[in-house]
Amino acid sequence: MSISVRSFAKINLGLRIGALRPDGFHQLRTVYQTIALHDIVRVSVVRGSGIEIRCNDPRVPKDSTNTCSRIIELAMRVLKARGRVVIQIEKRLPIQGGLGGASGNAAAALLALEFGLKKQLSSADKLRIAGEVGSDVPLFLIGGTILGVGRGEEVYPAPDLPSTSCVVATPEIAVSTPTAFADWDVLCGARPHMGARRLMDNAGKLTLPAQPDRIVQFSREISAWLSAEPVRSGRRRSGVSARCGGRAENPLLDLVRTGIENDFERVVFPNYPELREVKSVLQQSGARYASLSGSGSAMYGLFDSRHKAAAAAKRLNQSGTRAVVTSTLTRRQYWKRLQTSD
């Protein structure tokens, strides 16, 4: 029997890049948000052995480098399960778009495997396996609004933001994440070898590069936002900053007022100025917040109403940039819509 699961996309509500780590990754701070755009992943377990990947997009790898193959191999080993696993991926999300397509596919394949085998990994095992496969994979095992730390793989459920109309623009540009990180290191004057090994201080002791103040600042701002109590007075308010200690009627506006931004814009926009123009169109069309998602190339804008979002998407499509209207997903919506019969 084949199990079909929606593989939802994500956007980043702010992203701070920190110091290079000894393992070659960067410290990150971000707020992930799942959205309704999705691929479809179908998994079936038949007689035999091995893992087979099928996909309607020839650019998707069908060997062991595919994130779905890697996560299924690890899960089958932990579950002590046998059989040939066939994974069919129906791609609807862009490749290298910053929407977490491949990572979401891996998480969806894992969940579909559990449904198909009628076996469940512990939550801790699922998050561990997901983190081994990719930094963005664990967030899709939580859904909704999620705080990401470490290299992004340490995930914590945050209070859900209400479902919000969203426009996602997908210019025909493929932004390389490794290249974007390398450009960031050049911008910050980081030495290329710093992430590959520990550094020696003057006393000969092993030390690690200090985290930039911006990472600490971002952590404090998000912490203040998370800990703020809703404003309970009877008087209607347009919103207060998280720094002021009270949460507005619209928690999204509260988050925006912390000054969140995506650091990748500083290095991606100079190389792809058309992406800056897409952001400008979203803002001019009334987006409450517009940003690059991940390292791009997808851009998104959050709107007060679906009507405003539709007008913005129409404007972008008329200018030659593909754009669609969707919405953010709360955690409850994410899990309710996950399994599908199509």
Summarize the structure.
The chain is an alpha+beta fold. It has 10 helices and 15 strands.
What does this protein structure show overall?
This protein has 342 residues and is an alpha+beta fold. The protein has two domains: 159 residues, Ribosomal Protein S5, domain 2 (2-Layer Sandwich), CATH 3.30.230; 161 residues, Alpha-Beta Plaits (2-Layer Sandwich), CATH 3.30.70.890. It is built from ten helices and 15 strands. Strands 1, 2, 3, 4, 5, 6 and 15 form a seven-stranded mixed sheet that branches. The chain has a four-stranded antiparallel sheet with strand order 12-13-7-14, covered by helices on one side. A two-stranded antiparallel ribbon has the order 8-9. Helix 1 runs parallel beside helix 2, helix 1 runs antiparallel to helix 3 and helix 7 crosses helix 8. The longest helix is centred in the first third of the chain and has 17 residues. The chain is globular, with a radius of gyration of 21 Å. About 11% of the residues have low confidence.
Distance between the termini: 13 Å
Please summarize the sheet with the most strands. Answer: 7 strands, mixed
Mean pLDDT: 86
Tell me which CATH architecture of the largest domain applies here.
2-Layer Sandwich
**CATH fold description of the largest domain:** Alpha-Beta Plaits
User: How would you spell out the order of helices and strands?
Assistant: EEEHEHHEEEHEEHEEHHHEEHEHE
* Morphology: globular
Strand content is 25-35%
User: If you compute it from the alpha carbons, what radius of gyration comes out, rounded to the nearest whole angstrom?
Assistant: 21 Å
- How many β-strand stretches? 15
Query: What's the structural domain tally?
Result: 2
- Helix/strand-derived class? alpha+beta
Instruction: Catalogue the unreliable spans.
Output: 192-211, 231-246
CATH homologous superfamily (4th level) name of the largest domain: GHMP kinase, C-terminal domain
Helix content estimate: 25-40%
CATH class call of the largest domain: Alpha Beta
